[in-house]
Every structure is written in C-alpha cells, then in structure tokens.
UniProtKB/TrEMBL annotation:
Family the entry assigns: Belongs to the universal ribosomal protein uL16 family.
A Pfam family it matches: Ribosomal_L16
Organism: Sesamum angustifolium
A Gene Ontology biological process term: response to UV-B
UniProt-recorded Gene Ontology molecular function terms: structural constituent of ribosome
CDD domains: Ribosomal_L16_L10e
Protein name: 60S ribosomal protein L10
InterPro entries reported in the protein's UniProt record: Ribosomal_uL16, Ribosomal_uL16_CS_euk_arc, Ribosomal_uL16_dom, Ribosomal_uL16_euk_arch, Ribosomal_uL16_sf
PROSITE patterns in alphabetical order: RIBOSOMAL_L10E
Length: 317
C-alpha cells in the first residue's frame, strides 16, 4: 500500500495517485482559507505567508480496489497549499449551502429590486413562467383554476420553480402535454441578502462580528400578499380534476397557507362563463391570444345604426 502514492502531497490529496481514489474529503483546519480562495479575495503573497505559518491538515477517505479485495483507508495528510491548489480542492471540500427559506419568509423591509445600486444579484431559479400549450386560443381552454396565497410572505424563486415542475409533471402525465396551459403569476424581483459568517474553529479571529453587517445578494424572492394568485391553470372541462390535483401537489412546495379556487371566469379572461358565451353568440367577443376583447358601445360613428345615439349592439357582420 505504501507504493500506491508516487506524486506530491497535493497530487495525493487531489486523488491523482495511481491506485487510490478519494471518496470524501473533510476539512479540518483550513475552511477559512478555502473560503477566501473561493471568494477570490486571497492573494498569492497572503497564501504563501499563511502556508508557512500553518500547515494544512486534511482527512481523506480513500478507496483501494485490489486483487485481494476492496479496502477503505482513512488517512491524515499535512502539507502546504497555494491558491491554485486551494481553488482546485474547493469543489471537493465545500458545497454551496443556502440559508433556509424560513429565515426570509416574513416581509419586513422595503422592496429591494436589482438596480445599478444593487449589483451582483444571481439569476432567479425560475426562468420559464408559461408551460404547456401557451399559444392555444381563448376558446380552447374554458376551465380555469388558481392557487391563491393565504398569507403575506416572501416566496423564493426556488419554491416557484419547484412548484412549476411539480404541477407540469402531473398535468403532462395524466392530462397530456397539449391539454393544458400553466402560468406562474408572480415574479421574484425582491433581492435577498446574506452576511456570510465562518463557522470553523478560530472563526472569531478571522471576522469582525456585526461590523459591516450589510450582506451581499444571495437570491431573489417574490413578495406575496393575501389573496394573490400564485399559479393558474387553464384546460378543458374534462381535465378539471387533474388541474386541481396538480395544484394541490404544488402547494407542498410553498411555505404558509394556500387555497385552490376554481374560477368562475372563462379561461384567463375577465369575463364570466355565462357572459362570455352570451357575448360570443352576439359577436361581441374578439379573441386576443389567450385573452379576449369585448366590443362594447364605443366605436366610430360610421358603425352607428340609423336612429340610435349609441352602438347598443355589436358591429354588423
């Protein structure tokens, strides 16, 4: 086993040995060093001075596959790494851990959108807001159901994306990919900040506590009010129970309380189903994509019938 390692200590830690392959690495004493290298705030001179004063200890669990069987070897290594080695080992030793969404659930501050004063904001997790047959006409999908928020809270972009995926997956499986139109009704414009703190041994020597505690942008969320619609699904009447079940499953991706409300409107329009069918029979409805326009009593005087002061009926066909 001693002949397995033939390279340098850095090669040994990075798993470039001939026979040994790393399974997991656990950082013991240089979390702060790797953190600064990851944030690109570490210069070569600083890393050299730090490496001379403190040798880095890593505990690596190696897996040995030989002709006599497999073996796990926990080893402790002590060596000095520069910035290049540290940045290479960041992906092994550090995973991006986000603060739980419950820390940002309450709406406490003013809206903080992305602007020239608030830079470096990461892109929201959700990038698609319309799923399914979004180009189907207004007459194709008469049924509509909404997922309505029942609390005033922040909803993260990760939660919106998870709910969209859950609803889309269920509707695609049971109703068909061309039998519905799902729309996400809120957008994550509010920027969340985080004041990164070190949690390793000796962290009090490396940071200043609450001095300069204004954090850096971490993610985005949507500020949601009571009664605000989160998701909407339109489909045919035959798939109404599938749409309600899809939104019920999407509820579990959100914090707080939500309610599933079946709309009395025709699809995504603002007209009730009875009014829509009545006005359509009178040729007063003009389709406009997924919505519709009502041809009322206003218009050019040339369309006015003799003896009438207003356009009481739709234009003559």
């Amino acid at each position: 086993m001693t002949q397995a390692h033939t390279g340098s200590a850095a090669d040994f830690a990075m798993g470039r040995s001939k026979f040994l392959q790393p399974i997991a690495c656990f950082n013991l004493a240089f979390f702060s060093m790797v953190y600064e290298a990851h944030e690109n705030r570490l210069t070569h001179e600083k890393s050299s001075n730090w490496a001379e004063e403190n040798r880095i200890s890593v505990r690596v669990c190696y897996f040995y596959a030989g002709k006599y069987g497999n073996m796990f070897m926990p080893l402790s290594i002590s060596f000095a790494l520069g910035v290049k080695h540290l940045k290479g080992i960041v992906g092994v030793l550090i995973t991006v851990i986000y603060r739980p969404a419950r820390c940002y659930r309450q709406i406490k501050n003013k809206p903080y959108p992305k602007s020239r004063y608030c830079r470096g904001v990461p892109d929201p997790k959700i990038r698609i807001y319309d799923v399914g047959m979004k180009k189907k006409g207004v007459d194709e999908f008469p049924f509509c159901v909404h997922l309505v928020s029942w609390e005033k809270e922040n909803v993260s972009s990760e939660a919106l994306e998870a709910a969209r995926i859950a609803c889309n997956k269920y509707m695609t499986k049971f109703a068909g990919k061309d039998a519905f139109h799902l729309r996400v009704r809120v957008h994550p414009f509010h920027v969340l900040r985080i004041n990164k703190m070190l949690s390793c041994a000796g962290a009090d020597r490396l940071q200043t506590g609450m001095r300069g505690a204004f954090g850096k942008p971490q993610g985005t969320c949507a500020r949601v009010a009571i009664g605000q619609v989160l998701l909407s699904v339109r489909c045919k009447d035959g798939n109404s129970h599938h749409a309600q079940e899809a939104l019920r499953r999407a509820k579990f991706k959100f914090p707080g309380r939500q309610k599933i409300i079946v709309s009395r409107k025709w699809g995504f329009t603002k007209f009730s189903r009875s009014d829509y069918m009545k006005w359509k029979s009178e040729n007063k409805i003009l389709p406009d994509g997924v919505n519709a326009k009502l041809l009322g009593c206003h218009g050019p005087l040339a369309n006015r019938q003799p003896g009438r002061a207003f356009l009481s009926e739709g234009p003559a066909a």
